[in-house]
Amino acid sequence: MKKFILILLLTVISGIQYLEAKNLHARFSYTSFYAPEKGPYIETYLSIEGHSANYQLLGSGLFQASIEASLVFKQGDSIRYFDKFNLLGPETADTLAAVSDFTDLHRISLPNGTYQMELSIRDKNNPGNKPNVVRQEVIINFYPNVISISDIELLSAYKPSEAVSPLVKNGYELIPLVDNFYGQESNHLKFYCEYYHTQSVLGNTDFLLTYQIINFESHRIVEANSNFTRQKPKEVGILLSEFDITDLPSGNYNLLVSIRDKDNNLLASKECFFQRSKPIAITADAGDMNYMKLDVSNTFAAQISNRDSLAEFIRCLFPISSPKENTFAINQLEMADSKLMQQYFYDFWQKRNMQNPELAWLNYKEEVRKVNQTYTVGKKKGYMTERGRVYLKYGAPNQISKAYNEPSTYPYEIWQYYTLSNQSNRKFVFYCPEIGGNDFSLLHSDARGEVFESQWMVILKRRTETLNDVDKTKARNMYGNQFEQLYQNPR
To answer: Residues 328-382: pLDDT tens digits?
Structure first.
């Protein structure tokens, strides 16, 4: 997670405007890993779309793209890592024909901590253009003798290899997929991750390694894309696998990898957000497609001319969209037609405020800004998190009770809404089972249409409780535990 700002997974997608009106399209993502003998490290992936770059004629008669890039990791005013490099594209004889994309991989050792990462890129074959800069907070949390899982790396391909190459790891060549969007032509989701310290914690006791695709909004497991293996403990283990997503419908999903002990207690987990577009035959009522006929030339939507900005604005609508709107939105993101995206975006807000759709958008945009500022975790933007989704869908809660250090209890928050549509006194329980993490999942809510978990108090104390009894809804009370009182009376 910690993949993608867009991947999401925090994938960062940057569009650069040039004097020749040519856009350089770049994608950037990172994953964090741990090497027991060396400590934590980050892998960064920068992918350039070959057709979007400018090419220079070489002495050989071939053409080549050249991208100037710099990568910085800072803590406060201290620079912990810096590198400036040229990323060269493959040589080609014809720049008008299909040209290949090209990718850079950096592997950087960094100790645990919070960093500000800054990436700057510029097309060297376009003199006078300004570099484009993206910044992102990066958190690294790996600890000895604590079971943990690396970030999940999405792959475009993999194969066994004994070659010496930055792309080869643990006997496999791993080709990163610097994106988290799976269109109709992408029918396999391939991924790689590592897990650590199961041997030092569990000794010789086997454990379950599960990997599943989960619907982002409903949190339901996609049964056709759920699997598990029984593993022997080891200090470093790998999971290299894939799912056939041919029949996975359009929507937002999380790829979830979990480690559970013999009693099914959750020991560690990691999520990776992705989007799937599986266009279907249009069977909607004609009214649903009216946005394609809208004239938006004199509207606020027409002023959003950058396609990447349009795509980002449409993505942030998911928390307040209907399932049908989400389907249409994902199809628009796949087609990437700027005019249709503008039409869809304007229609979305016109349906919510006929008199002043722009004001409705600007008010919501401000709420998205607050959510991103408060709840962004690594590469997952705030509106993609559970707390962000609930905030944007229902508004700010009236009460938030936070407890991050209760004895034998996972960090949790309890949100209370005095009124919620035509419901009253509704609660949301978020928790974070990942040690050192800050991505709180929705564990339980009594609001209609949300996750209802009768054993939420037991799960919250799963460090010391087991789930052998399906009728058990209350955990043993310990000195300092307040979750039941806070649920009944948030404060």
So the answer is: 788 777 777 888 889 989 989 988 988 899 999 999 999 999 999 999 887 788 9
Question: 115 φ, ψ to 5°?
Answer: -130, 155
Angle (CA) 293 182 306, round 5°? 50
* Short-list 120, 101, 105, 90, CA closest to 48: 101
The counts of H helices and E strands in the chain are 8, 27
Q: Mean pLDDT over residues 78-89, rounded?
A: 95
Contact 427/446 with Cβ under 8 angstroms? yes
CA–CA separation, 109 and 39 (whole Å): 7
Is residue 277 within 8 A of residue 315, CB to CB? The reply is: no
Task: Name beta bridge partners: 333.
Answer: none
Q: Is 336 left (phi over 0), alpha (psi -120 to 50) or beta?
A: left
Please check whether residue 84 is in contact with residue 46, taking contact to mean a CB–CB distance below 8 angstroms. no
Backbone φ/ψ region at 416: left (φ over 0), alpha (ψ -120 to 50), beta: beta
Residue 1: the pLDDT is 38
From CA 368, how far away is CA 352, in angstroms rounded?
17
Q: Where does 245-362 show beta strands of DSSP type E?
A: 251-260, 266-276
Q: Which of 385, 440, 375, 378 is nearest to 116 (CA)?
A: 378
For residues 364-388, one letter each, b for 16 or more C-beta atoms within 10 angstroms of the residue's C-beta and e for the rest, the string is: beebbeebbeebbbbbbbbbbbbbb
**What would the 3-class secondary structure string for 166-226 be?**
CCEECCEEEEECCCCEECCCCCEEEEEEEEECHHHHHCCCCEEEEEEEEECCCCCEEEEEE
Which candidate, 372, 311, 10, places its Cα nearest to that of 179? Answer: 10
